[in-house]
Amino acid sequence: MFIEKIKKWKTLSSTYIHKSKWATLRRDVCEMSDGRIVDDYYVLEYPDFAGAVAITANNKVLMVQQYRQAAGIVGLELPGGVVDEGESPREAIQRELLEETGYLFENIEPICILCPNPSTANNRFHGFLATGGKKIRDAALEELEELVVEEYTIDEIKQLLLDNKIAQALHTGALFYGLMKLGVL
């Protein structure tokens, strides 16, 4: 069992260096639990995002191929996206699944909350298991979004994980949680 043995730091002040819709940088002055002062702790603020291990009614796993500029790769990822302001993670994943894949799911349940980089970033990834998916329409992508939806068997997903073919670490984590929840790992 995990028991916290270290006290949280106190944030004494925050100064914003850069603010935009997708990324904000701030400088915090913090007091450590032993009283020492850290006067230049930098935090990247990003919006939370959600992704789903999306299983269709015929037991296929939906994945999306997308180009990722920062890493310079075409990645294989879970469908999902940003949690908009005023939206719950569950609402976000329902919206994103329909937008990106055109599928509506009978059941959507949370399986994990992961921190992309808790030492420098404040956002969270909300992972879901969505089952019983049925295609009800074509995808409705946002203006600057390019992706290809693909279907895989659960065994193919396991092999992709073993072969290190899914580079998005949070998505691999959610896949492991989802496969465990399904009882296939």
Reading the helices and strands in chain order gives: EEEEEEEHEEEEHH
CATH superfamily of the largest domain: Nucleoside Triphosphate Pyrophosphohydrolase
What portion of residues is helical?
10-25%
CATH architecture of the largest domain: Alpha-Beta Complex
The pLDDT mean sits at 96
Supply Rg: 19 Å
CATH topology of the largest domain: Nucleoside Triphosphate Pyrophosphohydrolase
CATH class membership of the largest domain: Alpha Beta
Biggest sheet overview: 8 strands, mixed
Low-confidence stretches: none
Report the total helices: 3
How would you explain this protein's 3D organization?
By secondary structure, the chain is of the alpha+beta class. It has two domains: 10-45, no CATH class; 49-182, Nucleoside Triphosphate Pyrophosphohydrolase (Alpha-Beta Complex), CATH 3.90.79.10. It has helices spanning 89-101, 154-162, 169-182, and strands at 10-18, 24-31, 37-45, 49-56, 61-68, 73-77, 80-82, 103-104, 107-114, 125-135, 148-152. Strands 4, 5, 6, 7, 8, 9, 10 and 11 form an eight-stranded mixed beta sheet that branches. The longest helix has 14 residues, at 169-182. The model has no long low-confidence stretch (mean pLDDT 96).
List the keywords:
185 residues, alpha+beta, Nucleoside Triphosphate Pyrophosphohydrolase, 2 domains, eight-stranded mixed sheet, three-stranded antiparallel sheet, 3 helices, 19% helix, 41% strand
How would you briefly describe this protein structure?
By secondary structure, this protein is an alpha+beta fold.
